[in-house]
Design brief:
The chain is an alpha+beta fold. 32% of the residues lie in helices and 31% in strands. The protein contains 3 helices and 8 strands, in the order ααββββαββββ. Strands 1-2-3-4-5-6-7-8 form an 8-stranded antiparallel sheet.
Length: 142
């Protein structure tokens, strides 16, 4: 009988978590919804997971976007998208786009991550580049 109670409690917790995630999706922040509609119009929001300091958003095409609480995007990952092969050009700063086109002809930005200190990108050729706040290259790797 004790095992049945534990199993029931576990199932109830799982169901509550799934319902909570679906509710967050249905009550998505309007600014996030607008952002997705503007830059990823061929995808729908599947899940919005609200953490204490950010929103983690998953789109129907496989794109993942993290937003701050404001919300402002802080990370965009199109690596697993079946629609968008790269981060929309409007979201990549001109200085980064120029650097990529000059140094990695034909490469596209598939991931971009920004914070208060720096910017990081990953290209479709596997190269990762880190820039400081003034867009000077501080690290290149693969």
């Amino acid at each position: 009988m004790k095992k049945l109670g534990i199993i029931t409690a576990f199932v109830a917790i799982l169901c509550f978590g799934m319902t909570s995630a679906m509710a967050q999706n249905n009550n998505s922040n309007p600014e996030i919804t607008k952002f997705v509609g503007q830059y990823f119009p061929q995808a729908n929001i599947l899940l919005v997971n609200a953490e204490w300091d950010e929103y983690e958003v998953r789109l129907s095409d496989g794109t993942q976007i993290d937003f701050t609480r404001k919300p402002e995007w802080k990370k965009i990952d199109c690596e697993h998208s079946n629609v968008y092969t790269s981060v929309p050009a409007e979201l990549v700063p001109t200085q980064i786009a120029s650097y990529v086109s000059s140094n990695f002809a034909g490469a596209e930005v598939i991931k971009i991550d920004r914070d208060r200190r720096d910017w990081e990108i990953e290209l479709n050729n596997g190269i990762e580049v880190k820039f400081n706040k003034k867009f000077a290259v501080i690290e290149i790797g693969d």
